[in-house]
Amino acid sequence: MRFAALGAALAIGLAACGGGGDDDGKSTGADPAKITAWFMGSANAPQDKVLAQAKADFQKKHPKTDVQVVYVPWPDATKKLQDALNTGQGPDVVEIGNDQAVTWAAQDALADITERYKGWDEGKDVVSGSLELGRIDGKTYAVPWYAGVRVVWYRKDLFAKHNVTTPKTWDELKAAAKKVQDGEGGEVSGIAAPSDFTNGFASFLWGAGGDIAAQEGGKWVAKLDTPQSKQAIAFYTGLVRDGVAPKKYIGVNELAGPQRDFANGKLAMYIDGAWTLPQIEEISKRYTAQMGAFTIPTPTGQVGPAFAGGSHLAVWKDTKNAAVAFDYLTSVTSKKNAKAFADELKFFPQFNDLLRTGGYAGDPIQGPAAVQMGNVKGAPKTPNWTEADQNKKIIPTMLKEIMNGTPLDTAVAKANKDLADTLNQS
Q: Structure pTM?
């Protein structure tokens, strides 16, 4: 969803300015000649432009310190960071996916920047749900840089043709899908409900008051079997069972079929990030002028929580220059620079005031997404979440089984046990 992979970008021999830093996060000595920042993905003009401005802002306070930017391909990120952790030779500042911030903090790879963050004036306006993704036990380890959120994309012309208003509740969503699908004689499917789409399904789960899992008494307790969670599971899988969402999306994610069908006019609605317009236009520009979006419905019509994707920035634990590194971090994540970068990628800066006044309201996709961005949540804060979701695919497997006819209670009970067992692995 972000940038194309870069070839051989990083030599672990780069000691940066890391290694042997004070555990209390205090800097040692005068301003260093250089700090190193690792960013994920590959070099690209929009990012390079914003990072050049961030460097200029940073050097107003630290004129003698150069900033070396190193790009790390996303597929190589875990190994590079693990190597840095093992050798003590890492960066000063590092970009991490917001769903991985807790994982690296739990491995003692990131500096505790709680007190420094309290002294950052712009920090008071950061979206609280995004900030929580970089916190453990009340301590801050990573700061939101940019994020995106999923919304329901829809065809405005089809809604107008069949006199359908944008849904706010689940019942309205299902009715809208059926009305457009029936009105088009089945040539256009109502909505996509792919099974392998935990990040999209989670909005329905949270919107009903359910949850994935929670820590209780020092253990992870799976919550897929609560009445609220079962209500969400029944609704989402019911879109397929009741025929308003195609069965062909069972076993795939939102990109492996739904996005292409929506771009080509074969689908009235699908759930995806507000950042995907360039991907849709690569497939076809025929219908893009007729595309709009609305926040993911909830049972009662309020704007419920959505799964936020994006990146945080952190200070690496072994840096010898924590204070200087934090100043660079806040230069990159400042309101001015974060907005400039996010606007280039159709993401969002992570500040409440900018979401309200950043010029998004009039955009048919970004406007609803900015509203949705004000209420976000993340996955369970445990390093085992990746194993549960991406490797074992516990929730996607559960959804797929129910869509294919397995009784809901049977599939949920199995998934709930598997989830609890996996999250509590030592």
A: 0.81
